[in-house]
Prior knowledge:
The complex is a heterodimer.
Chain A: H1 15-32, H2 38-46, H3 51-72, H4 88-105, H5 109-117, H6 121-139, H7 141-149, H8 158-162, H9 166-192, H10 196-201, H11 206-220, H12 235-243, E1 248-249, H13 251-260, E2 265-269, H14 273-278, E3 285-286, H15 295-303, E4 307-311, H16 316-327, E5 333-336, H17 339-348, H18 360-377, E6 395-397
Parallel strand pairs in A: 1-5, 2-3, 2-4, 4-5
Chain B: H1 2-28, H2 36-43, E1 49-50, H3 52-59, E2 68-71, H4 75-80, E3 87-88, H5 100-104, E4 109-112, H6 116-128, E5 134-137, H7 141-149, H8 168-171, H9 178-184, E6 192-194
Parallel strand pairs in B: 1-5, 2-3, 2-4, 4-5
Helix pairs in contact in B: 2-6, 3-7
Amino acid sequence: MAPFIPQGIINPELNLFFALMLGIGFGYVLEQAGFSSSRKLAGVFYGYDFVVLRVFFTAGITAMTGLVFFSYMGWVDMSLVYINPLFLWSAVAGGVIMGFGFILGGFCPGTSVVAAVIGKIDAMVFIGGMFIGIFVFGHFYELFQPLYSGSFLGNPTIYTTLGISKNWFAFLLVLMALTAFAVTQLIEDKVNNTLPSEIIQRPNYRLPAFLILALVSINLFLPAERSSTIAELSPGDLLQRTLSDEKYVSVQEVAYHIMNRNSNIVLIDTRAPEAYQHFSLPGAVNIPAGEVLQRQWQHFLKNDPRRKVFFSFAETDATTAWLATTRAGHHNLYILRGGLNHFFAEIFEPQEWSDTNNNVRKEFAQRFFEKARSYFLEGKAVTTEPPAPIPVRTLIEIETPGGIGGC
Amino acid sequence: MMTQKLLNNLALILFAILIAALAFNLVAARNYKVSNRLVLEQAGFRAHVLDFADMNQWLHQEIPNPMILVDLREPEAFRAGHLEGAVNIPVDDVLKRKHRTTFEKKHPKLLIAEDEATAHAIRLILLGKGHENILVMAGSYHLLEQHVLQHFDPSWAFFREEKAAWDYPRFMPNTGTARQAKEKTPSIIPEMKTEVRTVQGGC
């Protein structure tokens, strides 16, 4: 259910429910399209019925066009879309066995289930054969293993292999599909000796074909990477926020947070990992400034309700991280004023306080800094007891490669 | 005929929805010319920062390399003292149309501000707007005046704000490495539970 589950719109726990719903829908459509008939399915090999080719090619180019536009508009993250890993020889062997089984049995795995459900005995036998095949493969796995996992060529896509752009590949594929539809229709009519009067009565698909070709043609003129999106903050607003003092969190506030550990603040160290490992403020997490836009941090930056305070030695790296994430449309982001250098200067460099004006507020401030100084110098900044447990939230990171797909 | 009409209407509706969504998406998009990711990549590259050694060298060249000096401070501060040939564009005004030509020039543009972080932030915003070849001066005009213009102080030659000013672990002795501290206490960000979702294709 991408993009709804990775974006947090739908609870991942409902995954199986949606899988069931989609499965029922898919099965219904297959059956209604006549794919429970092995004669119809095998027709593609004999030239009298190319509906299988048309249905799957149409589904492919429709889904592709949708994905191309949705990813351009930022609705789908293409890096999350699963790409089948290529094990060359097992793919070749699997393809041959699948094709042979298809023409022999008249089904592919999905359609055999659809046909078995409506009570076709040949389909039930086909499924039985499939399970015997699975059992044999599992039992003698070690024998097949070199072929199964050998010649691994990564997760290539056709357009990178051909060295053309994604947009041009989409255009060429649609062109190829439409040509295939026209040519197979001609073959079908010739094999079946279809009468011209029947051909005239058939619905024609010129308008949908023209529209999908128009869409992929428009796509050719769209740049590969968007320079800006709707979710981002406009340059004017970004400048205003950059110049505003509201983006700062004071040294006192951060010191108070560290000393009491009950504040609603998350400290984010934007320096390099080496500097972070050498020293960091207690409880801080390390997200180097150059990595703040990486996918792994987006859920935290977007959804954590606490105030997220970036800091570095001074303000440059923290400002860079703040600017990139603020432009990306995240909220509740702040910068530690003056960074670590200023934090230490405030706390560990003795302040000169005037005793003459008897300012009570200044005395309070002085007392606070003295308390902070002794707190940090005596090493109390490190927790000896674990802090109150934080409610655990399960985040699911969907990793793209690694599985075995196919039918 | 009914099926034909339904098919064509459905195709037209879907086409119109997609085109309308695309048009809205393009029109409503923010007015940046360079993506956030590419801007962030350029931020990490430190060659765009001129420190006081570079400034001293540049100021003492007989024929200085052409560079546009953009002073981002307030007009009062600019009037009180600035580098010769500098143009004053206060930070509030950097995106104004009248200053666009300055940033569109081919020569390198050096940003001088009250502090280094502000100059960096303005540089990133300008990069996002598609301007190129923008440099940042380390420190501030005030420090430049003190350590270069009045008398060049070599100990400040490589000063940058974004450098450690303290031996931090000495002052927070028991914090140790952040990693150790992290191991002792539960992470404040919930642990990522990685679940590999494999997709089974079907036909």
